[in-house]
């Protein structure tokens, strides 16, 4: 644990020493910010909110409501049930290139989910630091790296209660009104034996595209991939049932999950974005994912 703290501190010191420029908005320890044209501003990620992190340093609050309908072919674990997740994320620009990210919290309610029935409870809490080491506004090119930790404060009854170290790298490139992004996460399980099904390390990949169609609207398309790196070491490892981003379930080596999301952002008030997306699984796999609706509001200041 001490080595992880040292790594986090080193990352923060590197970011504090940089002289890159942040997007216009509130910065806790620096007043020097840059304004950009509205059509060059990328839409913040909508799907996979726990793992999809862009390369921009902002101060904002993001509210989430997710309605998740499970795949009926889930080895009898969840049947045709559903889950509702409500959460709030907070991001604070500490300097022009360093951001505090509180990316996971909230409350989950299962409905008629077979083995989980109507369980409800709190999610784990995850937070970290993001360092934007490239912020080239002239060429609309940005890159960032981050480190975070998910603390097992959540309820096992809703597939939470798991400690995880998260490392991520992101890149964003704009072409005037078209904005592209990609994020890669390495999720390292810290307690693979606390729950009955255990846990495993996971690699996730997230792709984003949006287009500034009008001052008030941008369509969005996103693709997500979840790749378990090993089998659960518990007695039920043979289940190999993946929780993707919705729950702390191990999955299995080779049991990959791909999803696609279609949505958009509506801008009716300065600084406020209202977003919606429909997401569905692309491959037939043993995972928690069936399809989901995500509603989100982002307020930047």
UniProtKB/TrEMBL annotation:
Keywords: Signal. Residues 1-24 form the signal peptide. It comes from the Bacteria. This is Uncharacterized protein. It comes from Coraliomargarita algicola.
């Amino acid at each position: 644990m001490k080595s992880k703290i040292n790594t986090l501190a080193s990352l923060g010191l590197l970011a504090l020493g940089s002289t890159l420029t942040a997007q216009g908005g509130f910065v806790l320890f620096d007043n020097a910010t840059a304004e950009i044209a509205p059509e060059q501003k990328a839409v913040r990620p909508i799907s996979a909110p726990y793992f999809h992190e862009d390369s921009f340093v902002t101060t904002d609050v993001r509210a989430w409501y997710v309605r998740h309908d499970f795949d009926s072919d889930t080895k009898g674990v969840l049947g045709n049930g559903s889950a509702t997740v409500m959460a709030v994320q907070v991001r604070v620009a500490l300097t022009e290139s360093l951001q505090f990210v509180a990316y996971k919290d909230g409350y989950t309610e299962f409905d008629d989910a077979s083995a989980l029935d109507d369980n409800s409870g709190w999610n784990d809490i995850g937070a970290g630091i993001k360092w934007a080491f490239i912020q080239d506004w002239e060429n609309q090119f940005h890159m960032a790296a981050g480190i975070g930790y998910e603390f097992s404060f959540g309820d096992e009854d809703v597939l939470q209660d798991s400690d995880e170290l998260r490392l991520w790298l992101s890149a964003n490139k704009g072409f005037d009104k078209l904005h592209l992004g990609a994020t890669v996460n390495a999720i390292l399980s810290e307690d693979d034996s606390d729950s009955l099904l255990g846990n495993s390390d996971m690699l996730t990949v997230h792709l984003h595209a949006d287009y500034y169609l009008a001052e008030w609207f941008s369509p969005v398309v996103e693709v997500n991939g979840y790749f378990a790196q090993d089998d659960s070491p518990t007695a039920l490892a043979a289940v190999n049932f993946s929780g993707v981003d919705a729950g702390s379930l191990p999955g299995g080596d080779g049991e990959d999950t791909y999803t696609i999301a279609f949505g958009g952002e509506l801008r009716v008030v300065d600084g406020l974005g209202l977003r919606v997306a429909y997401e569905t699984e692309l491959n037939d796999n043993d995972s928690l994912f069936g399809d989901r609706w995500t509603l989100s509001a982002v307020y930047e200041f």
